[in-house]
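Re: the request from the purification team.
They wanted to know what the chain is likely to look like in 3D before they choose a buffer screen. I agreed to run a prediction and write the result into the notebook, where they can find it.
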Amino acid sequence: MKSSAHPVSLSSATPSSSDVVSTLKSRLSGVLQGKDELIERAIACFFARGHLLLEGPPGTGKTSLAKGMAGAFGGKFSRVQMTSDLLPSDVVGILRMSPTGKDFEFREGPIFAHFLLADELNRTTPKTQSALLEAMEEGTVTVDGKSYALPNPFFVVATQNPLEFHGVYPLAESQLDRFMMLLEFTSPSEEAELRIYQRPDRAFEKTPTASDQGPLMTLDEGRSARVAIDGVHVEESVLRYLMHIVRETRNIVGIGHGVSVRGGLQYLQAAKALAFVRGREFVLPRDVRDLAVPCLAHRLFFNGMEIENLAKSQMIQEILSRIPEPK
């Protein structure tokens, strides 16, 4: 695999993209105190054409981040509260009798949106989880043998509660692999929490949406930026650095299987997008390093063992400590 020989100009694809990203970061950080790093990575996930999984206890800002991003990019936004009695058809849609009574017509489910928030994904059954995740993979929905294309862009932000919460259905390995990144939300720091109390009018439930602050980027501009990410330049030394990190995950003691080539390609795309979000048209080693845990930890699976995300993150950090960054 070779890096791009002729890096494109992202500014020509989206003239105001740098300003948009800067404003979006500022807008979201004003609401989600102390989570600047998470915000930056979530924005990169959107531009990289991935899907995002957010994990953490209730009340830590997961839903707020999803709503804020949807508002900034415009387009249609849907939210589905995942519950144990939710059916696949409740998400995807159903065939119903037409008003004439002579044939059936397809009624779109909430999945037909540019931005879909699947709240508490691991509280619904594996069958309903699969219906959503298969649509994420294919970009289409199939009902009664007929396919229906999902909107473009189509970006899923799913939230899940930690496994110690009651009534959860853990996502299967193949389902976790559909998400480009897993970001962990924790309670805010003491200083950040104090700032929230000082400005209760900007607390979580006041997250900006398309209706109150307006979009920062049109859907066409968003699509152009996503395509332009492909042209972000990656030096071969940086590409080898990324590859060595991915390959080393397959040598962890007790591993069932490490990160696949497909997972590595998503990691590469995410690093390109992060470089763009940081205002560059080329990837630096720190872009690769900073995304190692969000892009790789949830893709580690062990034979007959359930390993917490914290332990997986520590394994990735240990790999990073052993592989020298290119100069």
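For the purification team: Residues 17-218 form a domain with the Rossmann fold fold (CATH 3.40.50.300).
Please add any questions underneath this entry.
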